[in-house]
Structure formats: structure tokens, C-alpha cells
Amino acid sequence: MMPAMAKLQFCVLFLVYVASQCGGANVDVVSSAITVKNVDRTIDISSQLVKINSKITFENTGKSPVKSFLLAVESSSKSKLAFIGGKDSNNKDLRLVETTVKGYDNAKFWRVDLKESINAGSTASAVVETVYSKALQPYPTAITQQEEQLVKYIGNLYFYSPYPVTSQKTNVILNTKTVENFTKVKPFSQLDGTIAYGPYTNTAAFTEKELLVHYKNNSPFLTVTRLERLIEVSHWGNIAVEETIEIEHTGAKLKGPFSRYDYQQDHHSGPASVRSYKTLLPASASDVYYRDTNGNISTSNMKVKKDSVELDLRPRYPLFGGWRSHYTLGYNVPSYEYLYYSGNEYLLKMRAVDHVFDDMQIDELVTKVILPEGTTNIKVNFPFSVTKLPDSLHYTYLDTKGRPVITFSKNNIVENHIQDFQLRYTFPRILMLQEPLLVVGFLFALFLCVIIYMRLDFSIHKSEHPHKD
Amino acid sequence: MTTLAEPNLGNGRNKGLFNNMTGFSTLITVTVLLLAWLAGFASRLFAVIRFESIIHEFDPWFNYRSTAYMVQHGFYNFLNWFDERAWYPLGRIVGGTVYPGLMITSGSIHWLLHALNIPIHIRDICVFLAPVFSGLTAIATYLLTAELWSRGAGLFAACFIAIVPGYSSRSVAGSYDNEGIAIFALQFTYFLWLKSLKTGSVFWSICTALSYFYMVSAWGGYVFIINLIPLHVFALLIMGRFSQRLFVSYSVFYIVGLLLSMQIPFVGFQPIRTSEHMAASGVFALLMAVGALKYLHSLNPKGQWKQLLIVGGLVSAALVFLMVVFLTYMGVIAPWSGRFYSLWDTAYAKIHIPIIASVSEHQPTTWSSFFFDLHVLVCTFPVGLWYCVKNINDERVFVTLYALSAVYFAGVMVRLMLTLTPVVCVLSGIAFSILLDLLLREDELPAAPVEPNDKNLYDKAGKVKKRAPEPTTQADFGLGTNVRSGVLIAFMILLMLFSVHCTWATSNAYSSPSIVLASYGNDGSRKILDDFREAYGWLSQNTADDARIMSWWDYGYQIAGMGNRTTLVDNNTWNNSHIALVGKAMASNETAAYDIMTMLDVDYVLVIFGGAIGYSGDDINKFIWMVRIAEGEHPKDIHEADYFTEKGEYRVDSEASKTMLNCLMYKLSYYRYDSGGSPPGYDRTRGALPGNRGFKLTFLEEAYTTEHWLVRIYRVKKPYEFNRPRLPLAKRTIQTSLTMSKKTSKRRKGVLKNKPTLVKGKKLSKL
User: Which segment of the chain is annotated as a signal peptide (chain A) (predicted)?
Assistant: First the structure.
């Protein structure tokens, strides 16, 4: 037996240890053994998102093999970062762990653990993809109906790296020739909607230099401000999905009047407005509905394709800058495509978020999974870090004790987040009989009551004339 | 209904075949009523199938909105609800100005279903409430007719009312209005009244009062009950049909009903303070007097009491009448309201209350609409009435009065067709029942005893076919086989035509949600024009939450219900002068209208313009009513004649009057309207090219126009926004010092309060 004091001390120590493990993030140091030999960067700003694809070649200039390297994102844009992911030279996903580096508190770091370490003197390459949302500012911030939308992109001319970079090139894809202004640091060239910078040689670690491009961008600037995705699993062979979507045009705001005449006469009127967009649903989706609080939105088309169901959604009104809309989209999918079981153990594999439109950006996602009544041992695996919200109960037809609801949320979602989550649970199959039996039992009791009632006589005295027909 | 082919009705005669006749005829009754319910429910679903589960038209949107509010906030909060989104800046006390029966009904259904874990949205309950209640109405009608005549006639009546267009016009799915449940309450109250009159039991009288209470809570038409039942009592008294049963049932019903009806906040003290309700009190007093005299008479049943009875009755009647007149004169009792006067004098509303006259359903009924709404029943119901008068008893006096008064009211106002329909169904049911009774009597076995009281012989005509070919042994007994079968077939065909007509009328005339329009292309393809919801959706999403929308009152409820924005006037037309102000703004030129709009804090103006698609119910066509209503309140500023051409024509083209071409409504409708027919800017509704085109708006700007130009929304510019005259730089003077007050000299322009003093080289601690 430990003395009480020592026991307490031990507990405290243990707690401190646990706390430090949990609270304090990993701390790494920038290895001086690595240099970046070459970076080939593509900055795609033709849509509302900023998609940066960097092909990085590392070189181990040290003595010992290197097992991991660091990725960094500058402080100015780290709040806009929606997604970061890496692939190695074999096109396999790399595992990224968030970390910090002492002395660089403002920047954000990820440690990438390599499967095969880089030996001294040899090189390895990786492709890193980062997606930033809301990094393009409409400028001017308000335009009239006829005007084109101009946006400003402010980024880093150089690849932001904790290691010195020997050579780097950057391609900025605009998909337009209308460029008002852009940073001119030689060597550069402008060609058919692309601006190429570089090659720049020997940039030091953590170099930042402003890259500004002010250009025309009429692609839809739509932000889903909130998406609530409800997945209702039924063991009778159906999974119902319902998405409640609030959407806003976050491009340059509409200034002055909206003229239907201009909008109708001239097809190029309102170039920055969004008339419709396409949503892709799973190929097996059926019973699709598209409505809002006032009822069906009757302006939409559905095309069933081989690998998906394509919905051409038209909001009730065209969306101009600053205009909002909201709707509910729902459909059913057969459960055999997403629900696997062995005995009483079930595994649900579904997308945590699904496609809303190309190059979408979602501010807030809340996903709710309603499991059948009587489900226990629920375990969830998420493909990305989420905020788990408290579980709740949902009551619907013929429920007695309620269905468990798993809820999680995440902010700042882009298309790269369309990934499956896995949910394991135990469900005794005998419980499938509960609901039919409930109905049978109720009807039985009802008829029994009627039978008994018909045979009872509550009258105080016999009526004089028997009940006449 | 003609398709319900029961194999054999038995008619209570074939006792050898069916030992338990009660059970068998109950089975048939229940089956027929269930099928009537089903058919009535199904025939009201056209709108849901063609469009969607949606609330229709105008008033239902308010009912739906308040039901949703009640479900969300609870009943007591609903009663105390002050709706600041209506009648800006006055607001509306909803709880006190609404008949809450409808909301309570659907609210309790919602509550019950949710208690059973059935998650049905309140909108679906509201949409399907009226069709469900049509089945209950059918049952209530069956009960009423069975009380009056026979169960067979009851089944006929139930089947008629289930599908008759006159009733389904107000109770299709989505038409979530008071009438939908009120007709059930009306029929049920009448049934209970007859029941209580027949039995003289306090129990049934209390039930009548409770049902009456439900009716009061549901519809303003309860006044019809509280006048018809006293009228019935009065008629019975005059006919010398006073009985203890009548005395008990009426006095109990009146007292309990009066107390209960006063519990509804909207009704309040009206039952004892207004002329509309005085007939009931007067008859009550009279009944008491007659009862007392009868009692005295019963003490000494000698001859001379008879004169006393008559004289006493007359004197007390005169006394009661004079009392009411005196109280009205004194102001204790409010005189008849204008809406009531318009029932007696059809021209009254046109002269004094244009706002009532402007509603299409308040127009006098045309003959064709009688036939359209009732079809063959309009011809057969006098037969039933005649039989009722011929075989008169206490109850049939009632139905006679009911029929006569309802026919009158239906003739005065299209809308009151609704109160006529149930009694027409009842009487036609009786007529058809008598007819079949007559035609099928000889089919009975000669040995079967004919019971004179047994009236429930027939439920339906279906079985007749089978029997008609049977050779009749007593061909000389009245009608021959051929005549009978011929007549039967003729009536079968009539009934079939009736049901076809009912389905057709319900489907084509009454099943349009009117907020979603459908147009059909040449190839039969359907195109949905969803402009109303487009506009309301735009309003709800893209305007400030407290934005105030000015529109004509027709669209007030829809803007509040679908757009969730503040309106100035709405379909609860309680404040005529406020409506007139909006009408004046619409009828004035832009400058004058701007003054009114700033006075009323208007942010947006919404107009309906049908010129692009040829929609006739738009604001320009309603405009003359706006002018009339505005003129009623502002005769100095608005003159109806100014809006007509010199020939007295109402037109919008270049020959239109100048006032017309420059009023706000005209400008808002035609602003930048250049699409449409073959000459650009052609107005397809009026069939004319607008006379004033290419103008500019100074004080408003187009905020949104829907895809088919049906709804146009304009934003009212703030005073600093519109085109001020440009001053040359030299002439601009900025006055600063003159307007400064001495007292506030510290708060001069450009001076920060508590300005921090900056010392070079020192960090600023706090700003």
C-alpha cells in the first residue's frame, strides 16, 4: 500500500503528464540537414478557392537518414487554410501531423512522416496540396449588375518553407486575360491566362514576399454558410440523407438596382451572378426533393448518369453579390452500399460531407447520424479532425426509447474533405421485430377492448323499446 | 358515390336471411360513411397531386402562420401574441382578433401526433385538415338528416356533401381556412340541437352548447346559428308547438352557449352588446314568458286563460322588442354592423364600404354559380323541402327555416353559398330517399308487413339494377316496371353526372393554390410559374429583418407568411383608413407617394404585374378599387374620375388620363417593362401598349423583379440617395458654426472625447 500522500503525488504527476501530452502540441525542430532542391508550384485562382499544388524535391544534405520533414504555412494565410494534404512520389497519401516549431509561433507547421527515410545525399519528392478559402477579395467590393467582378489575390511569391530552397517556379492560373495588375518580379511571363514566375534561385528559409494579382474572376463566389447533413439509417434497407443548406454569394456585392429587363435581354448581363449550379449525388440516389420553407423549388433538373445523379439546381432567384438563399435537399440511398454487417456488428461508411457544387466552400458543417433504436457500442472514425457534439436522441415513428444521434461539426470545408467516416455499432437483430410487434400488439389490444366493451352492459335499466334500427 | 355497389341492402325486410338486422345495417352505414369520407378526402387532393402540399391563397397563410406560432410558442403566448409584423406601425393583437378554433384544432392534432412520436410537420396537418374534416362533415350531415327523415336519406346527404363543389370549394387540401372546420361544427350543432329538441334532455342541450362553442371559436358564421335556432324557437312558438322539451333545450342551450361563446377573446361581450345577437336574447325572454304563462295555464286549464296566453305572449314579445330598440338607442347595444347591412341591401357595401365590395366573393351570386356549385341538387332540394313542409314536425320546421334563410343569404353573397350547401345536401338526400322509397316499394315480398315508420329503406341506388328486371307481381300497384326502371336509370345517370361534375368542378375550379400558377404549352407540357414564391423567398432572404413592405392588402398575409417581413396592411382589413393611405400612395404621383412612404417608413414596395404573362388578377386591374378606397378617406386628393378617360374608360395606353399615367402604381408596374408580346412592352393582360414608357424613377429603384415579371419589388431610396441637384463647387457652403450650441461647445466637430495624449517614445497604456 502506498501512503496516501505519495498516492496523491503520483496522481498529480500523472495528471500533469497526461495534460502535457494532450494540451501541449508536438514540438519539432527544423532540421538543418534538409534543403529543398526544387519546388514547382501551381497556384490556381481561377475559381473562388486558392488551390496551391507544390511539387517539392527534398535533398538530405546531412549525414544521417531523415525520416520526416516539415511543412509550413505563413501566418498571414493560416486562418484561411481549409485543407492541406500530401502525396509521395508513388502517389500515396502521406500522414500529416500538426506541430509547432519554437521561435516561429505565428506560422503553422505540419510534420510529414515518410515511409522510407531519405538517406544522406539522396532526394525524395512529395506533392503537397493546400486549399485556401476566402483568400480572394473582391475589389471593388461592390459592383453594378453589368460589371465584371474583379478580385485581388495576395499570396507569397516564394514557397514558404522552413528549409532553404535552391530553385523554385510558380505558375499562377487565372483563366482570364483581363488582369488589372500583378506583381512583377523578374523573371516572369504572362501567357493566356497564366502568369509564370521564376525560376528563382536560392531563397532562404521562411522568405515572404507579397504576390498580388488583381484580375477578373466571374466564377461563382458561393459560400455555403451552414450545411446540416442528416443521415438516417434504417435497417429496412434505406438510408435517408437530408441536407439543409444556407448559401450566400460572397463575391462583390450588388450595387444599385437589379433590372430584370437587362437580365433578360442580355445574356451576358450579371456576369458575376449565379443562375444555377450542379450538385452531384450518389448514383443510387432516388426520391430526390429540393425545397425550402415555402415549398418545392420547381426550377431544377435531374439527370441520372452512370456514376452519379446530377442535379441542376436553380435557386428561386439568381444570386447576386450579397444575396442569400436557403434550401433543403434530400434523397434516399439503398443501405447495402453503405452499411456492412457481420452478425450484430454493423459498420456504416458514408461521406461526412458531400458535393454541393464544384469548388465549394462551406463555413460550417454539422453532420448528424441517426441510428436505429436499440443501437449500442457506437464508435466513430473521422477522416479529419472534427468537433464532436453531444449525442442526443431522436424520436420518430413507433419509437419508444429514442434513436441515438451522433453529431459532429467542422468549419471551413472544401471539396477535398469529401471523405468517408466510419461508424461501428452493435444492433441486436431481434430488435427489428419490435416495431411490427408494437403495431400488432396495439391493434390486438384495441380490438380486444372493443370486443369487451361490446359485451358489457352499462345501462342502469333496460330501455323500454329495444334499439330500433 | 354511384359506384358503391353493396350486394344487398336487406332493407330490414329479409329477416330470414339476416338475423341481426341492426348489425347489418350498421355495417352498411359505416361502410357508406367511410367510403364517403374517403371519396371526399380523395377528391380534395387535386392540388396536392398536381402541385405539392402547400397552403393556398391568402387567408390560409395567416392561419398557417399563427398555427405555426402557436405550436412553437404555446397556446397562452399565442393568445397574448402582439404581431408587430402586421399593420405597421400599429401592429395587431392577434390573440384577440382571431377565431382560434382552427389553430387549436390543428395544434392539438399536432400535439397528439408528436406525443405518439409521429413527426408530421405542422404544415402538412394544416394542408390536410380541411379534407379530413370534410369526412366529419359528411358524418354530421348523416346524423342531421337521419334525425330529420331517415338513415337512408342521411346516407344520401352524407355522400352528397362529401363531394359537392359548393363545399369542396372551401375545403380542398391546402385551403386552410375557418370554413373548413366550421361547416362540420355547423352541421353537428344543428344535429345536436334537433336531438336535444326531440329528447328535451339537458344532456343533449349541453352538447349543443359545447358544439356551438366550438363553432364560435372557429368561424364568425356562428352568428348564423345563434339567429337560426332562436328563429326556429320563435317559429315553433308562433305555430303553437311550445313544449317542455323546447323550453328545456333552448333555455339550457342559450344560457350555456352564451357563457361559453363569451370565453372567446375575439367575441368577448358581443353576445350581449350587439344587435346581431339580440334575437337570441329576445326569444329567450319570450320563451320564459310563454313558459310562465303556460305554467299558469296548467294550474287552471280553463278557457279564459287562452286569451291571456295569446295576449300575454304578444305583449311580452312587444316588450322585448321595444327593450332591444331602447337599449340600441341608448347605445348599450351596438347597432347592426356594416357587413350585416350589406346582407339586406346589396348596394349598401358599394356605397359605404368599398373595401367589402372590392372582394370578389362578396358579390351577389349568379344563377350559374348555383348550378356550378350544386349541380342537380339545386333542382332536387325543393322536392325535399316540399316533403318536409308536407310532413311537418318540430325538426322539419327547423330545416325549412334553415333552407329558406340559407337560400336568401347565398343569393346575396357568393361566399355564403357555403352555408346553403349543407342544407341543400340534406334536403336532396331526403328527396332522393323518398324517390327510391316510392320506386322500390313494390319490390318487397307481398307478405312483408309495411311499416309506415320505417323510413331507412335505401342507402343508395346501386342495388337497384339487380332488382329492376325482376318481374313484379303487382303491376297494377301504382307505377309499372318500365316506368320505375326508366326513372331509376334516369336518376342513376343524373347521380353519375353529378359525381362527374363534382370531380370536374373541384379539379378545375377550386384546386388551384393560386400562389403557384401553371401554364400549358402547345405540346401539353406543363410549365410552373413560381413567381410569387420567388419574390417572397427573395424578400425573406435578401432584405433586412425589419424591412417594411408596402403592397396592396391582398398580399399582406402572404408577405408575412412566406416572406416573414413587416407589412403595412393585410387581409385582416380592420383599419380602413390605413388601407386608404396605402391606396392613396399607390394612386398619387411619385413625389406625393414618397411623402406618404417616408411617413410610413416604407422600405420596399411590392406590386403584382401580370402584363408579361397575361395574368388578370394583378394590381393594375385592382387599381380602381385602391382609388375608390383612397377617395373614401381622402376625397380632396384622390378623385376616381381622374383615372378614367374622358369617355369614362379605364385604360392604360396612350389615351389614358394623365393622372393614371403618372401614378405610382402605373409607374411601378411598367417601369422598364419592354418584354412581352410582339411590340416590345406590350401588355398582354390589358391588350394595350402602355401609354407612358421610358420614364425614370426618382425616389425608388428596382430591387427585384421575378422571372415572369409577375412580382416587382422596389426599394424606396433614403433621402440622401436620390438625385439631388448638382451644385457647382463654388456655390457649396458648409455651415458649421451657426448651428453649434453654446452648451455643447465641447463636442465640436472633429474632437475626440478623452483624447489620449501621446508622448513620443512612450507606449500607450490604454486608449
Answer: 1-24
